[in-house]
Amino acid sequence: MPIIKPSDQQLIQAKFDRELVGEVPITLYTQKSAGSVLLGLECAYCQQTQELLEDLAGLSPKLHLEVMDFVVDAGKAQKEGVDKIPAILMGKGRRLRFFGLPSGYEFAATIETMVDVSRGSTSLSQATKEGLKKIDKPVHLQVFVTPTCPYCPQAARLAHQMALESPLITADVVEITEFPHLAQRYRVQGVPKVVINDKVEFVGAQPEAQFLSYVLTA
Predict the structure, then answer these.
(1) What is the average pLDDT across 197-207?
(2) Which residues are CB-contacts of 183 (< 8 A; sequence separation ≥ 6)?
């Protein structure tokens, strides 16, 4: 049974037909092997995430889904910096990532990110794009979100758009309720919470210019 309702599938397919330009490579790291369970890796949302992405991939020939096993393909996962599942990687260099099940408000944001990847461009202002060119060292953005937070998609979208514009940025959007150890480590008491290079952090949906200033500070 499809995860996405038929009526919603029609709307999404129409959007993809209108807006997708180029190919969209998507890699999902999930739990497929019995070895994952034996190692204590019980991923509560892996199956749902895979079914959701399969539904989306079936709505456009431009979406190309590759499913990897977190244990069997551990070497590749480590090389790509994947340390938790489910993990969705998109774009060149797989630097636009979502950890967890993209549901609730994050579902629509994920679809918009796919459109951006397909176009190879974003709606960021020219001033922001020029500011991102000043980055000369790797930047790791972590945006902690929940499915019910109406302000989280703004922060998630800005992070992914910046990663698409700058080859030095890797942007992780993390559904924090699925990874409580990270909530404790980063003292996540409100969302969206953004952590940059484990040095600079802020809470709340910030305007584009302010978000950029935090990135440049880090």
Answers:
(1) 96
(2) 144, 176, 177
For residue range 45-89, what is the model confidence (pLDDT) as tens digits? 999 999 999 999 999 999 999 999 999 999 999 999 999 999 999
For the chain, domains (ranges, CATH) are 1-119 (3.40.30.10), 122-218 (3.40.30.10)
Helices 6-19 and 105-119: angle between axes, nearest 10 degrees:
30
Nearest to 179 by CA among 203, 202, 146: 146
Q: Residue 190 CB: number of other CB atoms within 10 A?
A: 11
- CA dist 74 and 69 (Å) reads 8
CB–CB of 35/85 below 8 Å?
A: no
| Beta bridge partners of residue 100, listed in sequence order | none
Q: Hunting for tokens 């290079």 — which residue is that?
A: 197
